[in-house]
Structures are given as C-alpha cells and as structure tokens.
Design brief:
mainly alpha
C-alpha cells in the first residue's frame, strides 16, 4: 500500500544511498578535498581547481548512477521514470554537489537533459 505523501521507493532508495556512502567513502572525501581546494584557490588557479572539482564530482555521480541504473533495469518504463525521479531528488538532498554539477552542465548546455 502506498502511503500518501511518501515516495513509493523511499526505503529502497535509502538503502541504496546508504550502500553508496559506505562503498564510496574515499571518493566522497576526494570530492570534499577538491571542493576545499577550489574554495581556497586564488584567482590564477581557480579555474583549474574548479575543473578538478567537477571531474571528481562526475566520478562520484557516475558511481551513483551506475547503482541507480542497475536497479532500474528491472523495472517497467513508467515505474522506472518514477523511481529515477525519486532517486535523483533523494541523492541531491544527500549529496548537494551533484545538484551543483547538474546546474553547471545546464549553464554550459541549456538543452541538456541532465
């Protein structure tokens, strides 16, 4: 039974995100270190530091999407879209750097569907 106001896949997504955090702790530490380097970079090195930061965030996002996609492959198309939306919302709440990367990519390519 679906509880009104609660995402249908909340329990599954929570378990997946917990697993992701456990398995990718080192990668997430690299994301934080790269963000810190960017935040403290002077004007001459800021662009390069931001590029490094975005590269590490991309690596973290790829690992997260791989986890999501493995589960989504077992679903019908309509349910898959719903699950992917719920997953994205939950992941961005837990890992705000992913939202920052998505916004950055949209700024570069406004037609992007990311």
């Amino acid at each position: 039974m679906k509880v009104p106001g609660r995402p249908r896949y909340a329990a599954v997504i929570r378990a997946q995100l917990d697993l992701y955090l456990e398995q990718n702790a080192g990668l997430l530490e690299r994301v934080e270190a790269a963000k810190g380097a960017y935040d403290h970079a002077g004007r001459p090195g800021a662009e390069e530091a931001y590029g490094v930061y975005m590269d590490v965030v991309e690596e973290a996002e790829d690992a997260l999407l791989e986890l999501r996609d493995r589960y989504a492959e077992t679903m019908a198309a309509r349910e898959r879209r719903r699950y992917e939306r719920e997953f994205s919302r939950a992941a961005e709440r837990m890992l705000p750097t992913l939202q920052g990367r998505r916004e950055y990519l949209r700024a570069i390519d406004p037609d992007s569907t990311i």
